[in-house]
Amino acid sequence: MILVFGKTGQVARELATLSGDVTCLDRAQADLSVPGACDAAIRAARPDAVINAGAFTDVDGAETQVALATRINGAAPGEMGRACADLDIPLVQISTDYVFDGSGHAPRLPKDPTGPLGVYGASKLEGETAVSDSGCRHAILRTSWVFSAHGENFVKTMLRLGAERELLRVVADQISGPTPASVIAAACVTMAQGLSVGAPPGIHHLSGRPDISWADFARAVFGVAGLDCKVEDITTADWPTPAMRPANSRLDCTSLMATFGIARPDWRDGLCAVIKS
After folding, report:
1. Does the annotation mark 120 as catalytic?
2. Catalytic: which of 56, 120, 145, 217?
3. CA–CA distance, 115 with 27 (Å, rounded to integer)
4. Of 98, 175, 225, 238, which has the maximum CB count within 10 A?
5. Has this prediction a pTM greater than 0.85?
6. Residue 83 burial by Cβ neighbours in a 10 Å radius (0-12, 13-18, 19+)
7. pLDDT digits (tens, 9 = 90+) for 146-192
8. Which domains, and CATH codes, for the chain?
């Protein structure tokens, strides 16, 4: 059995559909903000593997809720890691492109220097470090621009606004690879299985291809959905937010293929599946 933290999130909801051998815990069953809750849940379940799909994901909200974001994204994964180390259980920790500063234009390698621009990225990086330091068999999966038919995400927002408006102004100077939550879920299961049979611990990247701007991603959404909404390119400076976003979130995903045989997905396939679901 695979134990999943974060029952209501995009990835966890996809994980629940993959196999009957997955148990997803919601906040009532394991509140990541409460010290000891994750440890107790893992020891009670004694699973074959753990996937942490739970997180404080409000990037702007994290700027004013530092302690809560750091507890959920930083301390809780470390607690999971220590419990997994004690029980010799593999742990897959989902992380983010926001651990990088977004400079340059080249895709980031897992070994590249980090430099988060805000509290969210810093808290997720703290979680990575805590898991790595716990001594458990682990894989950290950094991903970007997650979308699905569930929860709050860019695709769902564009579908709603595109049906209401004739023109949307969308940021065009932030670049990354949109990633279907279904692909992330399948990758996490593959990685957990790989760790169980001796795959080495480490950090890996997963994002969809091709890399694209938010503005062009919006155009793709409208094209697939058949919405007659125009997109006007704007800069990040034209759309100020409490938390800074990395301009370059391109991720080099070659280590994931080399270690686990997982290739970058074409996000356009996932987009069609989400919109037509």
Report:
1. yes
2. 120
3. 30
4. 98
5. yes
6. buried
7. 999 988 899 999 999 999 999 999 999 999 999 999 999 999 999 99
8. 2-212+239-275 (3.40.50.720)
